Amino acid sequence: MSDRPIDPASLSQNSEAKSVPFRGGGFLPKPKRIIAPIVFIGLIAFWEFGSRTGFISNLILPAPSEAWASFMDLVHSGLLWKNLSASLQRLVLGWTAGTILGVFVGVLIGLSSLARSSLQPLVSAIFPIPKIALLPLFIIWFGIGEGSKVATIMFGTFFPTVIATYGGIDNVDRGLIRMGQSFGLTRLSIIRKIILPGALPAIFSGARISAAIAIILLVAAEMLGAEYGIGAYILMAGSLMATDQLIAGVAILSVLGLIIAWLIGLAEKYFLKWRA
């Protein structure tokens, strides 16, 4: 073993050579905002090119430019706002009511043994039923007007919200709850400060799913009986074989879904700042 003194400079150089990059990011995905527009623009450009060259038949799938022309006709005629406002009213009423009621029942199931024993089997039994199959029953109960359509959307969004809510509560770290009890927090304080914030990520995930289900049910309900609405417009376009108008209606639904997802994302960022 050598008795030579250790040179501090050589130690510093060795430590710099062996340094490793920071890996404590927690697998947090970083959004790359430029990717999505590139994908959309590339897909639409390929679609337009295929339609103009005959690679894609216009009878099967009209060009995006034709769908855009139909959309502009819808705007200039004033029918866009009539159809969109009718659909938005039904969607907002049904989804909001179903979400609020679903969160309330989900919290009850997550926190009460009696509610879990009585309501969870009922939710599990009714959830797999296609909600649009119950629309004739809702028409009998609420009439052919707006009530049956709103009830269909509310019923369809209620169950995924319930499941997401009590699932989120079940996944809250029990150690945090025991810590709150050790510090003498009341049951209400533990629910408000620990359980509900811990369940919020699951609740927002359920809101995204229920919003998509709400749009699907909205279109189906409007197709079965509505004078105005995006679903009614799509049904009319399909019956006339006006595929350009049909594509325009589908595109409106797609944009509507993107806007709703964006709004839910903003709410997530606001209420889940602690998760960053």
Task: Write up what this structure looks like.
The chain has 276 residues and is an all-alpha fold. The chain has a single domain (67-275), classed as MetI-like fold, CATH 1.10.3720.10. Helices cover 76% and strands 0% of the residues. The protein is built from 11 helices and no strands. It has helices at residues 8-17, 35-53, 64-77, 79-111, 113-126, 135-142, 146-170, 174-182, 187-224, 230-239, 243-271. The longest helix has 38 residues, at 187-224. The protein is globular and about 70 Å long. 26% of the residues are buried. The model has no long low-confidence stretch (mean pLDDT 84).
For this entry, give a set of tags.
globular, 11 helices, MetI-like fold, mainly alpha
- Biggest sheet architecture: none
Number of domains: 1
- Unreliable stretches (pLDDT < 50, length at least 5) are none
Give the name of the CATH superfamily: MetI-like
What is the element string, with H for helices and E for strands? HHHHHHHHHHH
Let me know the number of strands.
Answer: 0
Class from helix and strand fractions: mainly alpha
CATH topology: MetI-like fold
Name the shape in a single word. Answer: globular
Helix percentage range: over 70%
Beta-strand content estimate: under 5%
Q: What is the helix tally?
A: 11
Q: How widely separated are the two ends? A: 51 Å
Mean pLDDT: 84
Rg, rounded, reads 27 Å
The second-level CATH architecture is: Orthogonal Bundle
In short:
The chain contains 11 helices and no strands. It has 276 residues and is mostly helical.
List the SSEs and their pairings.
Layout: H1 8-17, H2 35-53, H3 64-77, H4 79-111, H5 113-126, H6 135-142, H7 146-170, H8 174-182, H9 187-224, H10 230-239, H11 243-271
Helix pairs in contact: 3-11, 4-5, 4-7, 4-9, 4-10, 6-7, 7-9, 8-9, 9-10, 9-11, 10-11
